[in-house]
């Protein structure tokens, strides 16, 4: 029997040292090896004529060595080897550095295959350290070669050989995971072929066939899983029925502002879920500043007045404290008791809160991860709201839910993604979208600038502060780093405090500081006692300081667009005209395009769509930033059409066979069951 869970140490070519290196890449078993897909490929299959190449191109040539090999010792530790080769269409000078084997290998008059990057300097062709192979050998040329993500001390050749051995081992023994009728109906290759060809395709059409199959499976399983989860919730008509006589309009009519149409619509959706027998699982999506908090406050009112408790989970202590403030502002007059539970409170205080929570004296508990701890026990938890969903994993969400009996849940996220995509990626949740900002929001003017404008930017900041405003400055790093060339909080704080802004009150904030310190600084900033707050993205989510009118982002090129949009959302929350200044380095097209998008639009939906599109070209951040599921091989943007069609296929399958009990679906059932189990074993 083929044991896919076999430890990698038993694969040919893997000794103890390599086990460690492979582990670093997350590879532990035979199964991990064959599923460690290449990052990219090099096409070393087709030769090119030297007369046809362009500067910077990676090519395979077949050429004859027309000079003697010149060996020159430049200095200790540096020897270079040079020859000129010709393929009759043109000549090319080839140089190798310190590669002694070349001396034995290269003979004048012989013809070889060379693969490497060619440069064209005013018509003179050169290649540096190409791969060279004899005409009758095809180990590294003459085919498409997979390129893997590596770790130090592991080479492409070594990893490739290990994968090759692993694949030899599974050959003819890999068990198919998709039902046969699905393979046939959707014209997909079998799993074994897919795995072999994703690593070692002979041409790109083989690669495409393999990729399609693997992406199909990945998306299909995700869809079936999410839909099964949703069916589970919806079939269980054992949710809490909140009191129909408690009217949300009581609170709505008392608010100091009018809710937007979108907020009202979303509240209606929530209200009807809350009153129904079904268990609510709702995603509340809305751009920064669209007013999600007040929606959760009103839902909480309904829950509390129906005799239940509410848990609000925020990703940071700062945000939790701010929520507490807003909840109290609106709910205190209805005799509703809200409390804060974050890790920085005193033990005594904490025990008191836990006690009151347990006996039901506290109606609404607002907190961070601290809410997940074992000793947090509710009297009657009826509603769970998690804010900024992408900071919490599914398991954490399920943990808090398990503290009640089928509580209703609302997941709030500020990452606006197109509705069609949301319906696919959050197929386990019902979706409510706030697609409208409160009126009178002023557009935030955004400027992308390079270093040359630094003085003008600083003067502008001073002018704003002199008018009474406050400023955020966000850096990618906490401290200076040798590897990464980017601004750090500490470095900048030093410079601002002592030089550029020495007449102003400058403070800083970052994630490595103690929660208490962070809260104090944030409190001072809110009170207006700090002019410039330098920080990492800890302030990214949710903080609300209406007097702040400028957001400066250092090394803006290092952030995802959706994240920049979040950061920008920290200003323009009050009556003042607000600005976002994106300082960036580098002048690649993609960077400039990204900056332009930020300047041109304030619409989060447009931005996230562009972000997905641009990241399709392998930019910067993974999907983690978006709270979207991570795929190994499928690509949310590139495979949009496949996502859509697989969704309808999955619906069809589950309509016909909700429990996946039919013989033909048995392979699906096996995978889904094991995935469901994974989710439940917290
Ligand atoms: P987000 O959706 O980003 O969490 P918030 O809930 O923090 O946004 O709301 C941003 C600000 O807008 C808050 O100060 C809130 O009081 C205010 N707000 C919410 N809804 C409205 C509305 N309909 N009209 C005016 N202001 C509103
Ligand atoms: Mg918010």
Short account of what is shown:
This protein is α/β, with parallel strands linked by helices. The chain has 22 helices and 22 strands. Strand 12 (338-341), helix 12 and strand 13 form a beta-alpha-beta unit.
Q: Total strand count, please?
A: 22
Radius of gyration: 30 Å
Overall tally of domains? 5
> Which CATH architecture of the largest domain?
3-Layer(aba) Sandwich
Fraction in beta strands: 15-25%
Shape: globular
Provide structural commentary.
The structure is a single chain. With 682 residues, the chain is an alpha/beta fold. The protein has five domains: 1-39 and 151-175, DNA polymerase, domain 1; 46-142, Nucleic acid-binding proteins (OB fold (Dihydrolipoamide Acetyltransferase, E2P), Beta Barrel), CATH 2.40.50; 176-235 and 639-682, no CATH class; 249-434, Rossmann fold; 445-601, Rossmann fold, CATH 3.40.50.300. Helix content is 38%, strand content 18%. It is built from 22 helices and 22 strands. Strands 12-13-11-14-15-10-16 form a seven-stranded parallel β-sheet, sandwiched between helices. Strands 17-22-21-18-20-19 form a six-stranded parallel β-sheet, sandwiched between helices. A five-stranded mixed barrel has the order 2-4-5-7-6. α6 packs across α7 (204-235) and α19 (589-600) runs antiparallel to α20 (604-615). The longest helix is centred in the first third of the chain and has 32 residues, at 204-235. The model is unreliable at 616-626 (pLDDT under 50). It binds adenosine-5'-diphosphate and magnesium ion. Residues 292-293, 387, 542 line the site of magnesium ion (MG).
